[in-house]
Design a protein that fits this description.
By secondary structure, the protein is an alpha+beta fold. Helix content is 30%, strand content 14%. It is globular.
Length: 99
């Protein structure tokens, strides 16, 4: 039960992410990566993958809010596990707040 007096507004997905074009872009990004996370840390590629049961996301390298013209550019996409996708989103928001 939510007992907050002031409730946050409901989350709304950006309409771009609901389009058939975005869905096709995301599928191509994940297929290109072999459904494996493309993030590299300390010189090692993340080992999370769909094959191992991990959820994979198509992540924009340059956020759509910052570079909308690159929203469907395959070179602006990478396959990411849940952990790396979340971290990338947090970092992008932090960078926007500093700007």
């Amino acid at each position: 039960m939510d007992t907050r007096k002031v409730k946050p507004p409901p989350k709304r997905a950006d309409p771009h992410y609901q389009t058939a074009e975005h869905q096709q872009w995301a599928l191509q990004v994940k297929k290109r990566a072999g459904w494996r996370c493309e993030y590299v840390e300390n010189g090692h590629r993340c080992e999370r993958s769909r094959e191992k049961g991990d959820q994979m996301y198509a992540d924009h390298i340059q956020d759509v809010r910052d570079r909308p013209e690159l929203a469907l550019d395959l070179s602006n996409g990478r396959c990411a596990c849940n952990s790396h996708n979340t971290r990338a989103g947090i970092q992008a928001r932090a960078n926007r707040m500093r700007s």
